[in-house]
Amino acid sequence: MAGGQPPASGAYLAKARATLTGAELELASSLYHNAVNRAYYACYQAAVAALVAEGVATDPENYWPHDMVQARFAALLIDELRRYPRSMRATLKAIFDERLKADYEPDPIDAETASEAVRRAQAFVRVVVSRVGPG
After folding, report:
1. Sequential pLDDT tens for the chain (135 residues)
2. How far apart are CA 73 and CA 67, in angstroms?
3. What are the structural domains of the chain?
4. Alpha-carbon separation of residue 8 from 20, 85, 116, 117, 129 (angstroms)
5. How many other CB atoms sit within 10 Å of the CB of residue 15?
6. Which of 6, 22, 45, 78 sits CB 3.0–4.6 Å from 16 for a disulfide?
């Protein structure tokens, strides 16, 4: 943010929670591609919130590349600091891969895949909220 402090983790966590609500609504509307897309972004935003809460910064300010978020969340917050359970280690990458299929491949996303992505996103966001706070 130009001339100010970077956003607190709560700003990213609020986005994650809103995005998760969007994923749930898309799933309920049988819009499976959209549900997977929103599920990934809910996890991504929650992971950014978790990184910010631990004091991780980016350069340039507030630019969070997806590969960096995935790698730093797993390596720093799970492996090194043990802030999050190992069961969360593969979630970001797995849902990211499903999002790429949903967004760019011609094959349809089925209800089971979308439901699993949303379920995993719900769990991911819930754990980050429990660690970082509600925002």
Report:
1. 444 455 788 899 999 999 999 999 999 999 999 999 999 999 999 999 999 999 998 877 778 999 999 999 999 999 999 999 999 989 999 999 999 999 999 999 999 999 999 999 999 999 999 999 866
2. 10
3. 9-132 (1.20.120.330)
4. 19, 23, 30, 27, 14
5. 19
6. 45
